Amino acid sequence: MERELWPRLYHLVMEVGKTLRLTDVTFQPHIIVLVFFWAALHDRPVCWACDNRNWATTTLRPATLPSASTLSRRLRRVDTAMLMRALVLRVRQEGEPRLVAFVDAKPLPVGGASQDRQARCGRGAGMLAKGYKLYAIWGDRPMPETYRVFPMNISESKVAEEMIPQLTGAGYLLGDGEYDANAVFDAAGAAGYQLLAPRKAPEAGLGHRYQSPYRLRCIELMGSTFGREVYSLRRGIERAYGNLTSFGGGLSPLPAWVRHQDRVWLWVTAKLLINGVRIMMNKGLAA
Known about the structure:
This protein has helices at residues 2-17, 29-41, 46-49, 68-75, 78-92, 156-163, 182-190, 213-222, 225-231, 236-245, 261-283; strands at residues 100-109, 120-123, 128-138, 146-151, 171-174, 193-196.
Protein backbone atom coordinates (compact mmCIF):
# COMPACT_ATOMS: atom_id res chain seq x y z
CA MET A 1 0.00 0.00 0.00
CA GLU A 2 2.84 2.43 0.83
CA ARG A 3 4.37 2.02 -2.65
CA GLU A 4 1.00 2.70 -4.28
CA LEU A 5 0.20 5.73 -2.13
CA TRP A 6 3.58 7.46 -2.18
CA PRO A 7 3.63 8.52 -5.88
CA ARG A 8 0.22 10.15 -5.48
CA LEU A 9 1.19 11.85 -2.23
CA TYR A 10 4.45 13.05 -3.78
CA HIS A 11 2.83 14.63 -6.84
CA LEU A 12 0.05 16.15 -4.72
CA VAL A 13 2.54 17.87 -2.41
CA MET A 14 4.66 19.04 -5.34
CA GLU A 15 1.62 20.50 -7.09
CA VAL A 16 0.20 22.33 -4.07
CA GLY A 17 3.69 23.31 -2.89
CA LYS A 18 4.11 25.52 -5.96
CA THR A 19 1.71 27.99 -4.33
CA LEU A 20 4.00 28.60 -1.35
CA ARG A 21 7.63 29.60 -1.81
CA LEU A 22 9.96 31.27 0.71
CA THR A 23 13.15 33.22 0.02
CA ASP A 24 14.99 32.92 3.34
CA VAL A 25 15.15 29.14 3.81
CA THR A 26 17.31 26.28 2.58
CA PHE A 27 14.41 23.84 2.37
CA GLN A 28 11.10 24.97 0.89
CA PRO A 29 7.91 24.03 2.84
CA HIS A 30 6.98 21.27 0.40
CA ILE A 31 10.31 19.52 1.09
CA ILE A 32 9.62 19.61 4.82
CA VAL A 33 6.12 18.22 4.28
CA LEU A 34 7.37 15.50 1.91
CA VAL A 35 9.87 14.22 4.46
CA PHE A 36 7.24 14.35 7.21
CA PHE A 37 4.78 12.41 5.05
CA TRP A 38 7.42 9.76 4.36
CA ALA A 39 7.78 9.28 8.12
CA ALA A 40 4.00 9.26 8.74
CA LEU A 41 3.30 6.86 5.88
CA HIS A 42 5.73 4.34 7.40
CA ASP A 43 4.78 5.09 11.05
CA ARG A 44 8.30 6.19 11.87
CA PRO A 45 9.72 9.21 13.73
CA VAL A 46 10.95 12.15 11.69
CA CYS A 47 14.60 11.33 12.40
CA TRP A 48 14.09 8.06 10.49
CA ALA A 49 12.91 9.98 7.40
CA CYS A 50 16.00 12.21 7.55
CA ASP A 51 18.28 9.23 6.90
CA ASN A 52 19.13 8.67 3.21
CA ARG A 53 19.28 4.90 3.75
CA ASN A 54 15.54 4.82 4.42
CA TRP A 55 14.65 6.23 0.99
CA ALA A 56 16.13 3.36 -1.00
CA THR A 57 12.72 2.06 -2.13
CA THR A 58 11.75 5.15 -4.14
CA THR A 59 13.18 7.61 -6.64
CA LEU A 60 10.50 10.18 -5.80
CA ARG A 61 12.39 12.00 -3.08
CA PRO A 62 14.06 15.32 -2.29
CA ALA A 63 17.58 15.66 -3.63
CA THR A 64 18.81 16.74 -0.20
CA LEU A 65 17.24 15.81 3.13
CA PRO A 66 17.06 18.18 6.10
CA SER A 67 18.59 17.18 9.41
CA ALA A 68 16.27 15.90 12.12
CA SER A 69 16.68 19.10 14.13
CA THR A 70 15.92 21.27 11.09
CA LEU A 71 12.84 19.21 10.26
CA SER A 72 11.57 19.32 13.83
CA ARG A 73 12.05 23.08 13.99
CA ARG A 74 10.44 23.74 10.59
CA LEU A 75 7.41 21.60 11.42
CA ARG A 76 6.56 24.11 14.15
CA ARG A 77 6.54 27.08 11.74
CA VAL A 78 3.46 28.75 10.34
CA ASP A 79 4.43 28.11 6.71
CA THR A 80 4.30 24.34 7.30
CA ALA A 81 0.83 24.61 8.83
CA MET A 82 -0.28 26.77 5.89
CA LEU A 83 0.86 24.17 3.37
CA MET A 84 -0.81 21.36 5.34
CA ARG A 85 -4.09 23.30 5.34
CA ALA A 86 -3.75 23.96 1.60
CA LEU A 87 -3.34 20.22 1.05
CA VAL A 88 -6.45 19.55 3.14
CA LEU A 89 -8.47 21.99 1.02
CA ARG A 90 -7.13 20.47 -2.21
CA VAL A 91 -8.11 16.91 -1.25
CA ARG A 92 -11.46 18.00 0.16
CA GLN A 93 -12.37 19.57 -3.20
CA GLU A 94 -12.60 16.09 -4.71
CA GLY A 95 -16.33 15.77 -4.09
CA GLU A 96 -19.39 17.83 -3.25
CA PRO A 97 -21.15 18.24 0.11
CA ARG A 98 -23.91 15.65 0.53
CA LEU A 99 -27.33 15.90 2.12
CA VAL A 100 -26.24 13.95 5.20
CA ALA A 101 -23.18 14.61 7.37
CA PHE A 102 -21.97 12.99 10.59
CA VAL A 103 -20.38 14.53 13.68
CA ASP A 104 -18.37 12.50 16.17
CA ALA A 105 -15.03 12.33 17.95
CA LYS A 106 -12.32 9.66 18.02
CA PRO A 107 -10.21 9.24 21.17
CA LEU A 108 -6.43 9.36 20.74
CA PRO A 109 -5.15 8.06 24.09
CA VAL A 110 -1.61 8.17 25.37
CA GLY A 111 -0.09 6.09 28.15
CA GLY A 112 -1.09 6.86 31.68
CA ALA A 113 2.54 7.50 32.63
CA SER A 114 3.06 9.99 29.77
CA GLN A 115 4.70 13.27 30.78
CA ASP A 116 2.77 15.19 28.10
CA ARG A 117 1.41 18.16 30.05
CA GLN A 118 -1.10 19.06 27.36
CA ALA A 119 -2.79 15.65 27.39
CA ARG A 120 -5.90 15.56 29.56
CA CYS A 121 -8.17 12.92 31.02
CA GLY A 122 -11.61 12.54 29.48
CA ARG A 123 -14.13 10.09 28.12
CA GLY A 124 -12.57 7.61 25.75
CA ALA A 125 -14.10 4.52 24.14
CA GLY A 126 -16.24 3.28 27.04
CA MET A 127 -13.74 4.35 29.70
CA LEU A 128 -11.80 7.26 31.10
CA ALA A 129 -8.53 7.84 29.28
CA LYS A 130 -5.77 10.38 28.95
CA GLY A 131 -4.79 11.98 25.69
CA TYR A 132 -6.43 13.83 22.82
CA LYS A 133 -9.44 13.56 20.54
CA LEU A 134 -10.03 14.01 16.85
CA TYR A 135 -13.29 15.97 16.56
CA ALA A 136 -14.64 15.81 13.02
CA ILE A 137 -17.65 16.30 10.79
CA TRP A 138 -17.63 13.82 7.92
CA GLY A 139 -19.55 13.88 4.68
CA ASP A 140 -18.86 11.73 1.65
CA ARG A 141 -15.65 13.45 0.61
CA PRO A 142 -12.08 12.14 0.99
CA MET A 143 -11.42 14.56 3.87
CA PRO A 144 -13.67 15.58 6.77
CA GLU A 145 -15.75 18.68 6.13
CA THR A 146 -13.97 20.18 9.13
CA TYR A 147 -12.00 18.81 12.08
CA ARG A 148 -10.13 19.77 15.24
CA VAL A 149 -7.61 18.13 17.56
CA PHE A 150 -7.94 19.03 21.24
CA PRO A 151 -7.16 17.43 24.61
CA MET A 152 -9.60 14.70 25.55
CA ASN A 153 -11.35 16.71 28.28
CA ILE A 154 -12.82 19.25 25.82
CA SER A 155 -16.58 18.83 25.42
CA GLU A 156 -17.66 17.37 22.08
CA SER A 157 -20.70 19.64 21.97
CA LYS A 158 -18.57 22.77 22.49
CA VAL A 159 -16.21 21.79 19.68
CA ALA A 160 -19.20 21.04 17.45
CA GLU A 161 -20.46 24.60 18.01
CA GLU A 162 -17.10 25.84 16.71
CA MET A 163 -16.96 23.52 13.69
CA ILE A 164 -20.54 23.64 12.40
CA PRO A 165 -20.42 27.24 11.06
CA GLN A 166 -17.69 26.10 8.63
CA LEU A 167 -20.03 23.65 6.89
CA THR A 168 -21.20 24.36 3.37
CA GLY A 169 -24.41 23.16 1.76
CA ALA A 170 -27.43 22.06 3.78
CA GLY A 171 -29.15 18.90 4.96
CA TYR A 172 -29.09 16.67 8.02
CA LEU A 173 -26.30 16.41 10.60
CA LEU A 174 -26.31 13.16 12.58
CA GLY A 175 -24.75 12.86 16.03
CA ASP A 176 -25.07 10.88 19.22
CA GLY A 177 -26.45 12.00 22.57
CA GLU A 178 -23.33 14.06 23.31
CA TYR A 179 -24.65 16.68 20.87
CA ASP A 180 -28.11 17.01 22.43
CA ALA A 181 -27.60 20.65 23.41
CA ASN A 182 -29.64 23.70 22.41
CA ALA A 183 -26.55 25.66 21.36
CA VAL A 184 -25.48 22.88 18.96
CA PHE A 185 -28.98 22.69 17.45
CA ASP A 186 -29.01 26.46 16.93
CA ALA A 187 -25.53 26.41 15.34
CA ALA A 188 -26.57 23.63 12.97
CA GLY A 189 -29.81 25.43 12.05
CA ALA A 190 -27.91 28.65 11.32
CA ALA A 191 -25.60 26.69 8.99
CA GLY A 192 -28.54 25.16 7.09
CA TYR A 193 -28.50 21.76 8.79
CA GLN A 194 -31.07 19.95 10.93
CA LEU A 195 -29.23 18.13 13.69
CA LEU A 196 -30.60 14.70 14.59
CA ALA A 197 -29.41 13.36 17.94
CA PRO A 198 -31.13 11.18 20.54
CA ARG A 199 -32.15 12.87 23.77
CA LYS A 200 -29.87 12.33 26.73
CA ALA A 201 -32.90 11.78 28.99
CA PRO A 202 -35.78 10.70 26.73
CA GLU A 203 -38.21 10.24 29.64
CA ALA A 204 -37.65 13.74 31.06
CA GLY A 205 -39.86 16.71 30.23
CA LEU A 206 -38.71 19.82 28.43
CA GLY A 207 -39.06 22.08 31.47
CA HIS A 208 -39.59 25.83 31.25
CA ARG A 209 -36.22 26.87 29.87
CA TYR A 210 -35.43 27.92 26.32
CA GLN A 211 -35.71 25.11 23.81
CA SER A 212 -34.19 25.50 20.37
CA PRO A 213 -36.83 25.16 17.64
CA TYR A 214 -34.37 22.87 15.86
CA ARG A 215 -34.21 20.63 18.94
CA LEU A 216 -38.00 20.48 19.08
CA ARG A 217 -38.02 19.59 15.40
CA CYS A 218 -35.43 16.87 16.10
CA ILE A 219 -37.60 15.35 18.83
CA GLU A 220 -40.52 15.30 16.41
CA LEU A 221 -38.46 13.74 13.62
CA MET A 222 -36.89 11.09 15.87
CA GLY A 223 -40.40 9.92 16.70
CA SER A 224 -41.29 9.43 13.03
CA THR A 225 -40.42 6.63 10.63
CA PHE A 226 -38.66 9.07 8.30
CA GLY A 227 -36.51 10.49 11.08
CA ARG A 228 -35.48 7.05 12.33
CA GLU A 229 -34.56 5.97 8.81
CA VAL A 230 -32.43 9.06 8.30
CA TYR A 231 -30.74 8.57 11.67
CA SER A 232 -29.98 4.95 10.81
CA LEU A 233 -27.49 6.34 8.26
CA ARG A 234 -25.32 7.43 11.18
CA ARG A 235 -23.38 4.18 10.99
CA GLY A 236 -21.56 5.94 8.16
CA ILE A 237 -19.38 7.61 10.83
CA GLU A 238 -18.16 4.18 11.90
CA ARG A 239 -17.25 3.48 8.29
CA ALA A 240 -15.37 6.79 8.01
CA TYR A 241 -13.27 6.17 11.11
CA GLY A 242 -12.88 2.50 10.18
CA ASN A 243 -11.45 3.45 6.78
CA LEU A 244 -9.09 5.88 8.46
CA THR A 245 -7.57 3.24 10.71
CA SER A 246 -7.78 -0.07 8.83
CA PHE A 247 -4.85 0.06 6.37
CA GLY A 248 -1.08 0.21 6.53
CA GLY A 249 -0.17 3.85 7.00
CA GLY A 250 -3.54 4.74 8.51
CA LEU A 251 -4.25 6.38 11.86
CA SER A 252 -3.17 3.89 14.50
CA PRO A 253 -2.80 4.68 18.24
CA LEU A 254 -0.51 7.65 18.78
CA PRO A 255 3.13 6.49 18.77
CA ALA A 256 5.45 7.44 21.59
CA TRP A 257 7.12 10.24 19.61
CA VAL A 258 3.84 12.09 18.91
CA ARG A 259 3.14 14.19 21.99
CA HIS A 260 1.87 17.75 22.61
CA GLN A 261 -1.09 19.18 20.76
CA ASP A 262 0.75 20.75 17.83
CA ARG A 263 2.57 17.52 16.99
CA VAL A 264 -0.63 15.49 17.39
CA TRP A 265 -2.41 17.88 14.97
CA LEU A 266 0.37 17.49 12.39
CA TRP A 267 0.40 13.70 12.73
CA VAL A 268 -3.40 13.38 12.52
CA THR A 269 -3.56 15.77 9.54
CA ALA A 270 -0.91 13.73 7.72
CA LYS A 271 -2.88 10.54 8.38
CA LEU A 272 -6.12 12.16 7.19
CA LEU A 273 -4.40 13.27 3.99
CA ILE A 274 -2.91 9.82 3.42
CA ASN A 275 -6.36 8.30 3.87
CA GLY A 276 -7.89 10.95 1.61
CA VAL A 277 -5.44 10.17 -1.19
CA ARG A 278 -6.15 6.46 -0.74
CA ILE A 279 -9.90 7.13 -1.11
CA MET A 280 -9.25 9.20 -4.23
CA MET A 281 -7.13 6.41 -5.63
CA ASN A 282 -9.84 3.81 -4.96
CA LYS A 283 -12.50 6.02 -6.56
CA GLY A 284 -10.33 6.72 -9.58
CA LEU A 285 -10.07 10.44 -8.82
CA ALA A 286 -7.02 12.41 -9.92
CA ALA A 287 -4.65 13.23 -7.09
